[in-house]
From TrEMBL:
The lineage of its organism: Eukaryota, Viridiplantae, Streptophyta, Embryophyta, Tracheophyta. Pfam families: F-box, FBA_1. Residues 15-25, 33-52 have a biased composition (Polar residues). Residues 1-53 are annotated as: Disordered. CDD domains: F-box_AtFBW1-like (cd22157). This is F-box/kelch-repeat protein at3g23880-like protein. Residues 57-103 form the F-box domain. It comes from Trifolium pratense.
Length: 439
């Protein structure tokens, strides 16, 4: 039986890694810690003089409350979840939305994590492992925190991770169904079903991001309509819908620009309040970047870098590095260039960050994607390739995680993706946070 929804009015009895995943889709409860319209945190008033209701903290009697806030907002989420048990005022502070935003702004790169999706079997579905990113660049073998037991309490069969924003993961759990989950605080919410009569799973293309103007999170879905074939390519005129977290329905917005060839495997990337897709068109040049502004809900084309006339591009992929839009351009099956747009929408700000040489024995038709770049220029790569049994055609697409050191041009296999023969199905970097997906 699934555990009951969490309640902000209840004191946490034991906040540890074995806590059940909780779901709460009700309106946010009124906090005892007040938030001003300017977004500042203020001391809550107390109508009682009893010791247990007082804001006096016995453990830190000489520190002003404002200094306690500054200290706590720099701590890891796991510690803060435990500290909710210290005092009622601490619980009110740590569960406050404004404090969660301040913590997100103040938290360091040490709070970034990698979550891997493992394909166990068709019967068991998927499971998830969590790794602090700092440990991946320092150790050959990394101990993972298993997350799959938290997910099974919800009764869902999880599919692929669509994207992440502010510590919230967007996960497609079936045709027309999406789940928003913050693994750091173990809370999730399931969005309303998109269609009464679900379509085939490949007809949906979900993306996830944040609209700063309205302080809201939005899920965007492209529904493949009017599919035709031109010169062997599938051309789509997608219907686009948006769900704003906290509402109960999906809204239809302006259709995706028509006349484009969309690849099913390409997901929209969130950068600077926009969702960005890599698309194909019949004309020349074939590759274009389409951007959807989440505030205006309108589209525009993003100018690409100058790849150089001497190179022959065989594939392009979009990504996000250092909070900037990036492109992984593969040329002549010998190397992959990583391009970074330092200032969004400024075509002059494109720079070539790294050139990653090919790795031997990684299978056929490799696809290279950079997930993260450390301060000392080590690059976490996800490489997807096709493998064969040596006789027949390629059998399967497999993923592999590798660290590339751009300073000495070396590679290191992390050896974390295969445990007892389990196949890595995907990986996603997210920022540990207190932001709740429940409204």
């Amino acid at each position: 039986m699934a555990p009951p929804p969490s309640s902000d009015a209840d004191e946490p009895s034991d906040v540890t890694s074995s806590d059940p995943l909780t779901e709460d889709t009700t309106a946010t409860k009124k906090r005892s810690l007040n938030s001003s319209t300017a977004g500042t945190l203020t001391l809550p008033s107390s109508s009682s003089n009893t010791p247990e209701d007082s804001l006096h903290i016995p453990l830190l009697p000489n520190l002003p409350f404002e200094l306690i806030i500054e200290i706590l907002c720099r701590l890891p989420v796991k510690s803060l979840m435990q500290f909710q048990c210290v005092h009622k005022s601490w619980k009110s502070l740590i569960s406050d939305r404004q404090f969660a935003k301040k913590h997100l702004r103040m938290s360091t790169k040490d709070h970034h994590h990698l979550i891997t999706t493992l394909a166990n079997s068709e019967r068991d579905g998927f499971s998830y492992n969590d790794y602090p990113l700092t440990s991946l660049f320092k150790q050959v073998t990394t101990t993972a925190m298993q997350l799959e037991h938290l997910l099974t309490n919800g009764g869902y069969r999880f599919d692929h991770i669509v994207g992440s924003c502010h510590g919230i993961l967007c996960i497609a759990i079936g045709p027309g169904s999406v789940l928003l989950w913050n693994p750091s605080i173990r809370k999730f919410t399931k969005l309303p079903c998109l269609d009464e009569t679900p379509r085939p799973e490949h007809d949906y293309q979900f993306s996830f991001g944040y609209d700063h103007s309205s302080d809201s999170y939005k899920v965007v879905v492209s529904l493949y309509n009017a599919i035709v074939f031109i010169n062997g390519n599938r051309v789509f005129n997608p219907l686009v819908k948006v769900h704003t977290l906290g509402t109960n329905s999906w809204r239809t917005i302006q259709d995706f620009p028509s006349g484009l060839v969309r690849e099913d495997s390409l997901l929209g990337k969130f950068v600077c309040g926009t969702i960005n897709w890599l698309a194909l068109k019949i004309q020349t040049p074939p590759w274009i970047i389409i951007s959807l502004d989440l505030e205006m809900e309108s589209y525009q084309e993003i100018v690409q870098p100058d790849y150089g006339g001497e190179t022959t591009l065989t594939s392009l992929k979009l990504g996000v590095l250092r909070d900037c839009l990036c492109i992984f351009s593969r040329s002549s099956d010998t190397f992959t260039d990583i391009w970074l747009m330092k200032e969004y929408r400024n075509k002059e700000s494109w720079i070539k960050l790294f050139r990653v040489p090919d790795i031997r024995n990684i299978g056929y038709f490799p696809s290279v994607c950079a997930l993260y770049v450390s301060e000392d220029d080590q690059v976490l790569l996800e490489i997807k390739s096709q493998y064969t049994d040596g006789v027949s055609m390629p059998l399967d697409i497999q993923s592999k995680l590798i660290v590339y050191n751009s300073r000495d041009d070396t590679f290191k296999d992390l050896n974390i993706q295969n445990t007892n023969g389990v196949k890595l199905a995907g990986a996603q970097v997210y920022h540990e946070s207190l932001i709740s997906p429940c409204f």
